[in-house]
Amino acid sequence: MRKSQAALEFLTTYAWAFIIISVAIGALYYFGVFDFGKYLPQKCVFPSQFKCLDFSLRPSEVRIKLVNNLGEDVCVKSVGITNDAASPISCTFSPMPQGACAASEFQWNHDTTKDFSFTSCSGGGYISDTRTEVKVSMNYYAINTPSKPIHSISGKINGRVTPS
Amino acid sequence: MIVALTFVIIVPTTYLFFQYSRESVQEIVDAQVTKIGTSIIDSAETIFYSGEGSRTILQLNVPEGVTQASIMDGKELVFNVTSSFGESEIIFFSRVNLTTLGANCVSNVCKIPDLAQEGVKSLKIESINKNSVSITTV
Lengths: 164, 138
Fold this sequence. Notes:
The structure holds 2 protein chains of 2 kinds.
Chain A: H1 2-30, E1 43-45, E2 50-58, E3 61-68, E4 74-82, E5 90-92, E6 106-108, E7 113-122, E8 131-142, E9 151-160
Antiparallel strand pairs in A: 1-9, 2-3, 3-7, 4-6, 4-8, 5-7, 8-9
Chain B: H1 2-50, E1 55-62, E2 66-72, E3 76-83, E4 86-93, E5 97-99, E6 105-106, E7 109-111, E8 119-127, E9 132-137
């Protein structure tokens, strides 16, 4: 009897404190205080042979600037973007065919930079003012290699989608 | 109160540390593979121009994540590297013709299986004739 009375008195005395603490934690969560990911630096990670120099994540647009450090001229066959969401991000990439490559491919000379622009991005949790991670893949071949074997690279961009 | 404060500090710190280290691992692997590939190509070119019969042994530390090493067309040294965001091929171009044991070659692709296993490896680079440099593990 004494124990249950003590428990009831404890609750009636401190219930307001529990409620205030719960509301405070809820408010902190709502305002993103517990979103620790935002304290991480924004990053663009690619193999050093196609080093990422710069990137920007805008609503419905992803832009990356890469440099060809291979020491060889290449033809880029395809470039794709995705992420780990159940319904992955979908963008449009329309390169300008140029150089000695086949149609729908474009040439990328060594020691030069290239801007990749993915437009009309949607899905995959790609929402303005949120932190997101996208994966970029590219297939290419070296122009001067006789059998022109196709190679692939993958990179990752982790950053905040900033409203324009 | 002390326990709560400790958790408030430890949990975010652990999360941030884990995220930082995860991204750093990929950059370290990339740097190690780049160093290995550059060493092999530099040595192969040096040995080639030193003349037939020249050879050298390289000690290399292959990092975790390298799934395949191969020579394509005698010109490209290719390392397949798996990371948290997919598979990449790190390629090095040689100005001299590269080859390896004939048993590991199919068509124009020669694999170097031992170079795709994590750990310290000894690599023999030898100018086998006037046209080629052989790369084999010893």
